[in-house]
Amino acid sequence: MKDLHSFGWYAAKLKPHLPKKAFNPVPTRLWGGLAYLLVTVGCLLTIGMLDFNPFIYIGVSLVIGACFAALGFLGHEILHGTVVRKAWLRDFLGAVAFWPLSTGPKLWRKWHNLTHHVHTQHEEHDPDAWPTLERIMRSRLLRWVYKLPLPVRAFFSFCSLSLQFSVHSLNMFVVYLKEFNPKKRRAVFFEAVLPWISWIGLLVWVGPVKWIFMFLIPLLIANLIVMAYISTNHRLNPTTEVNDPLANSLTVTVPKWVDVLHFNFSYHTEHHLFPGVSSKYYPHVKKLIKEHWPDRYHEMRFDKALLALWKTPRPYHNRELIDPSSGNVYGTLGNGLDTTKIQSKLEEKVNNTKEFMTTISEQKGKKRASKYQ
């Protein structure tokens, strides 16, 4: 792996080449959010107040789910302070945008802005980093899961994308609630619970059948869209001790119209370099990165990135990817992964997975024995 630099090191070199207006908030982004909000409300009322063929409901659910996801992308931008700067307005608008995903603004800023962005791809401190082989082998359930063949795990992993954001958000609520100032915990709790109260209230109003089309199916669709992006952001990149966005982040490429609909969420390396700059200017940031460090920058077509995720295992081992069921080792981006022909490093096949598991068991045995000494 090449010498690593912090995101601040890169930002300091590129900042003089960006226009000053790039560092100002861009409130016009809210017009897109308003459009999504109006479409969402219109679709919810259509299902709630009118009786149609269920196949029509499915089509409307797809539209609602797409709007839920897009609002989440806008909420992400709002809560980075690149749309409005006033704290109360930022949190209010962020709460509205994240309402469908039931994630509160205070929790998001703690989990995403202050932890993930500061410790990106650090195997211990990044809450979004995929676990290492050592951590996986300490769990009996995960040891069983990772005995399954890679294609089987890949299938269920991709199916789980429709749930991952909601499940992870709930887990982050449990993890970080105790870290908030006691005076703020009530507000954090309220922000997390209030959206669910509204969705449960919707269930009471329309009944379970329509609720499935108005909220459950759209939520699954939104999870799938959001996690399709998030899963490509870092999971093909290595873990890093230094928070180097050019090493630990991936920008995916999508058609221009998709970038418009999704507020340029595909520009992820650019976002980690300048989280305080509106995504409106990320194409310009990308151009500058490729001019300065073309050999360090990682970008990939979105569909190819998803295919690479399907073909590679997720546990990390020495900054590479390892398949515990076979012991095969795969490279990471910038560290031997050839996305044009994905295959394991046969000459580096790890045959000591059982030995590793034995070591973990011995460590657990010593801990248990120490309790009785």
TrEMBL record:
Per UniProt, the keywords (alphabetical) are: Membrane, Transmembrane, Transmembrane helix
Fatty acid desaturase domain: which residues? 57-302
Leader peptide range in chain numbering: none
Report TM segments: 30-49, 55-75, 188-205, 211-230
The keyword Transmembrane is annotated on this UniProt entry? yes
What Pfam families does the record point to?
A: FA_desaturase (PF00487)
Superkingdom of the source? Bacteria
PANTHER family this protein is in?
DELTA(5) FATTY ACID DESATURASE C-RELATED (PTHR19353:SF19), FATTY ACID DESATURASE 2 (PTHR19353)
The molecule here is called Fatty acid desaturase family protein
